[in-house]
């Protein structure tokens, strides 16, 4: 009988520890929404609707911009655009995302940059409106600015 009580006690203890571990485990950080659209003007690259995609892992986040309306005026090699994406932050200082990640693009191809890495804090509300995307291609700087707020709204980070 004593063996059954020890076995039952051990099982109860293991179950309690498992539940406690789940309760204390950190929750996965999430950004909401994960995609947003914005209308941007990019000078010689053109202008129009662009899609921003956001991901978050703790205080690290990435943003990617793609647009079929904004196109490459020249052939661009993979990972040859130096991009700086500055996002206006409703809770304080702007957040900056940087990188040199882009696919190869032929003349007229849609522009895609990112994912660009940066740091965020819980509660940050980031919007490209009143921020900018600067791309340096073959020594030429192209700056994109949003003509209005993102839809459905700013990226809010946990």
Automatic annotation (TrEMBL):
Signal peptide: 1-25
UniProt superkingdom: Bacteria
Keywords, alphabetical: Signal
The name this protein goes by in its record: Secreted protein
Organism name: Streptomyces galilaeus
């Amino acid at each position: 009988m004593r063996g059954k009580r020890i076995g039952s006690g051990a099982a109860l203890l293991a179950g309690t520890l498992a539940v406690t571990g789940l309760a204390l485990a950190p929750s996965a950080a999430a950004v909401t929404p994960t995609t947003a659209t914005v209308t941007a003007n990019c000078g010689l690259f053109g202008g129009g609707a662009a899609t921003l995609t956001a991901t978050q892992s703790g205080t690290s986040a990435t943003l990617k911009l793609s647009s079929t309306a904004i196109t490459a005026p020249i052939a661009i090699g993979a990972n040859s655009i130096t991009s700086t994406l500055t996002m206006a932050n409703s809770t304080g200082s702007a957040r900056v995302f940087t990188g040199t990640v882009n696919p190869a693009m032929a003349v007229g191809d849609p522009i895609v940059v990112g994912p660009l890495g940066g740091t965020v804090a819980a509660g940050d509300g980031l919007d490209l409106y009143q921020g900018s995307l600067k791309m340096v291609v073959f020594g030429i700087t192209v700056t994109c600015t949003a003509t209005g707020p993102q839809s459905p709204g700013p990226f809010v980070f946990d």
